[in-house]
Amino acid sequence: MTDVEDVKYEIQNIVLSVTYKDTELDLEKLAGLLEGARYDPEVFPGIAYQSFEPTASFLIFASGKMNCVGAKSMEDAKNAIEKLTKKLKDSDIDIDDNPEVKVQNMVASFDFGRDFDLEMIARNFRNTEYEPEVFPGLVFRLDDPKAVILLFVSGKGVCAGAKSEEDIQRAAEKITEVIE
After folding, report:
1. What band does 2 get if pLDDT is binned at 50, 70 and 90?
2. Are 46 and 60 in contact (CB under 8 A)?
3. What span, in angstroms and rounded, lies between the C-alpha atoms of 32 and 47?
4. 104, CA 20 to 30 Å: which among 56, 131, 145, 146?
5. CA atoms of 30 and 92, how far apart (whole Å)
6. Residues 6+ apart with CB under 8 A from 34
7. Domains along the chain with CATH numbers
8. Is a pLDDT exceeding 90 seen at residue 34?
C-alpha cells in the first residue's frame, strides 16, 4: 500500500498493449515453444500464456500484437515483457527488441481511512451514479485524470481507467478534495 496524504492505495492490475511492428507470428510454432501456452484457434484466435517471476498473463496474436495483464507494477510488467521478448528471440523468432508498449488501464484499490455518506455525495455531484438497490457502490467519474472511482460506505474504493500511477494519485487527491 502506498500513501497519498491520508489515502492508501495499491495497484491491483495493469493492462498494456504490446506491439512488435512489422511482425507476423506463427502461432502454431509459438505455442509449441512457450511452456504452458494454450492455443485453440477454433475457440480463440490467439495464444494465452502466463509468465511467472514476475507474474503476468499474455494474449498473443499473429499480427505481432499482445495484451499483457495481471502485473501489479510497471516494473513487473516491463520485466515480464522483456523476458517474453528474450524467450521469443532465443527461439529464433524475428522480432524487435523494443516493442511499443502502451498502458491501456490501471486498476487500484483505495482506502480513504474514513466512512462515506454516498447519498450526500450523489446529491451534490453530477458526475456520479448511485443506485444502492442495484450496486452498493457509488460510481464517480473524473475528467482529469480520466478515471472512474467506485466508492463504498466503508471508505474503500476502486480506481479504474487510469493510465499511470500519477493518475491514480491525482484521482485519490481529487476525490479527497471534492468530498472534504
Report:
1. low
2. yes
3. 10
4. 131
5. 11
6. 47, 49, 87
7. 2-10+106-179 (3.30.310.10), 21-98 (3.30.310.10)
8. yes
Q: Which three cell numbers stand for residue 165?
A: 500511477
Res 178 pLDDT > 90: no
Q: Which amino acid is at 137?
A: G
Pair 76, 54: CB distance under 8 Å:
yes
With the CA atoms of 71, 40, 89 and 62 taken in that order, what torsion angle do they form, in degrees rounded to the nearest 10?
-100
Nearest to 28 by CA among 10, 46, 12, 43: 46
Asked if 67 contacts 49 with a C-beta cutoff of 8 angstroms, the reply is: no
CA distances from 17 to 66, 73, 162 (A): 6, 15, 14
Question: What Cα–Cα distance (Å) separates residue 18 from each residue in 97, 103, 168?
Answer: 12, 9, 22
* Residue pLDDT, tens place only, 43-62: 999 999 999 889 999 999 99
